[in-house]
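Technical annex B. To support the medicinal chemistry partners, we prepared a structural model of the target in complex with LARABZUK, based solely on the information shown next.
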Amino acid sequence: MNILERIVEFKKEEVAEQKKKFNLSVLREEAEKLKVPYDFKSAISGNGINIIAEVKKASPSKGVIREDFDPVEIAKAYERGGAKAISVLTDKKFFQGSPFYLRQVAEAVKLPVLRKDFIIDEFQIYGAKALGASTFLLIVSILSDQQLKDFIELGRELGLEPLVETHDEEEVERALKAGAEIVGVNNRDLKTFTVSLETTLRLLPIIKEEGKLLVSESGIKNKDDILRLREAGVDAFLVGETLMRSENPEEVLRSWVS
Ligand SMILES: O=C(O)c1ccccc1NCC(=O)[C@H](O)[C@H](O)COP(=O)(O)O
């Protein structure tokens, strides 16, 4: 089993356990009542350098990335530095994240917050809204065509436009067919951990031809990477590790967006 398959297997058990603890109808009612905090799509549509900065304590490929970890302080530094949105890992087992970090961050910043998790059930989408998220991630490779379509539609009914993540031509076609408006290209192969920014550049024409927003995800190290991708037509950049390892993420972000 590769890492992605292991994560999904564990996620199925985790969601089944959560469903025993929390009533889906109550969660749905709560989620439907809440106002969407911020519009993610417009936040990342501007002409400048649109960074989605990620709060990421650890990862399966790198282990612990940052020991002194305060999600709220990190998110506030990102906001001061000029991030347009914040991504918060809510997976506990593989990323040392938490749904509580999402709630805390959403209360602390005036930016859209993305729920970064391995979403396989509508329960997690209602949960995202109830926790204060303005959007959530859908990973094409772990969902069927029907799930993809249903989850995008459910997000829209709740006022959340999802970021739909792809890694190759076939996944881009599936994302577009399912109706995705914001297409992410993950430069990291989640089965092997190989990272290449060329993945974004290769898939870009298919996504831009359809007039969709394109987010380049993973492996972005510096301003040169960003400018190269921006010049090619990328709309926004999802950056985790580089910012989490930085002593001063606020300054790094400021230098990127200026
Ligand atoms: O980051 C990993 O090791 C990883 C492993 C398995 C599944 C997903 C994984 N990462 C999720 C992400 O897509 C990244 O957190 C995100 O794009 C930021 O990437 P980076 O800037 O390289 O930290």
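Notes passed to the chemistry partners:
Residues 52 and 85 are 5 Å apart (CA to CA).
The two ends are 43 Å apart (CA to CA).
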